[in-house]
Design a protein that fits this description.
alpha+beta, about 20% helix, 2 domains, about 30% strand, five-stranded antiparallel β-sheet
Length: about 280
């Protein structure tokens, strides 16, 4: 199959299937990357970056695709997005109150995922299972539904005193992940954090935090022919031409026989893809 497509990169679009389907968006084109497993591919950075929000040409991408002015003014670029327990909408200081109402005052899910070992995380209810796939999780389990982003961050803050909240991306990409009983982990965490969760219920009301105890664990399989034994990272800023045989896709990474590359990191870069 021969293809040559050029456009501005967005994070790969995913579809839960066996294995996961990955689409590489380049402007209006979407390339089904699964079709190129085992084939030699080429990704060439043309040297231009345009902000994913305003379209302004920028020499550097901030926060995965934004120009510096947008970084400073958009709510989606504020530090509370990384640290949801610091959400300040209720204080009246949200950068974009309307955006906050849509994205932060919406139902969120607290979950456990097995990506490089067990971790706790949060996301909007509408972002499952995308969030799990983006993190390269091989197992995932929703454990609590809450009314707002702030509440999810506070629950996560309590649980992460006992379990990780980050993925070791190198371990995730090596594929050396042992299966875990996430339901048992959930029950243990709820017991360990009983006093903190009770305090949050008293603060927000009994209906705000709703434990999920009847969900099935989701198993996720990725399109990988061969995992790397040693993970070396590629970077468009240092090496504009990235090429090699596509050995797999996991998380937001392309796994080539020449190294791995985090495609989400280079959102808004003008890229030519060929195979």
């Amino acid at each position: 199959m021969t293809i040559n497509v050029t456009g501005h990169l967005s994070k790969m679009v995913v579809e839960l299937a066996t294995p996961v389907k990955y689409y590489l968006p380049l402007d209006d084109e979407r390339v089904l990357m699964n079709d190129y497993l085992g084939q030699r591919i080429s990704l060439n950075y043309a040297g231009e970056i345009h902000c994913c929000h305003c379209g302004r040409k920028t020499k550097k991408s901030f926060n995965q695709g934004f120009c510096f002015p947008c970084l400073k003014k958009l709510a989606r670029c504020d530090s509370c997005i990384i640290s949801p327990e610091k959400c300040h909408y209720e204080q009246g200081t949200c950068r974009e109150p309307e955006w906050g109402e849509e994205f932060c005052l919406a139902e969120h899910v607290v979950y456990l995922a097995n990506s490089s070992g067990v971790k706790v995380g949060i996301t909007r209810a509408t972002q499952l299972p995308t969030r799990w796939i983006d993190q390269g999780a091989v197992q995932a389990l929703p454990i609590m539904r809450v009314a707002t982003r702030l509440q999810s961050g506070l629950v996560e803050d309590a649980l992460r005193q006992h379990v990780a909240d980050k993925t070791n991306w190198r371990k995730m990409l090596k594929g050396e992940i042992e299966a875990v009983d996430l339901a048992a982990t959930r029950d243990n965490l709820f017991e360990l954090c009983q006093s903190e969760l009770t305090a949050l219920n008293e603060r927000f009301g009994l209906q705000a935090l709703q434990p999920v105890t009847d969900a099935e664990c989701v198993d996720i399989e990725y399109p990988v022919l061969e995992y790397p034994t040693k993970v070396s990272s590629q970077n468009f800023d240092k090496t504009p031409l990235v090429e090699g045989t596509l050995m797999g896709i996991k998380g937001q990474y392309l796994i080539l026989d020449t190294g791995v590359i985090n495609m989400r990191k280079f959102t808004s870069y003008n890229i030519s893809f060929s195979a």
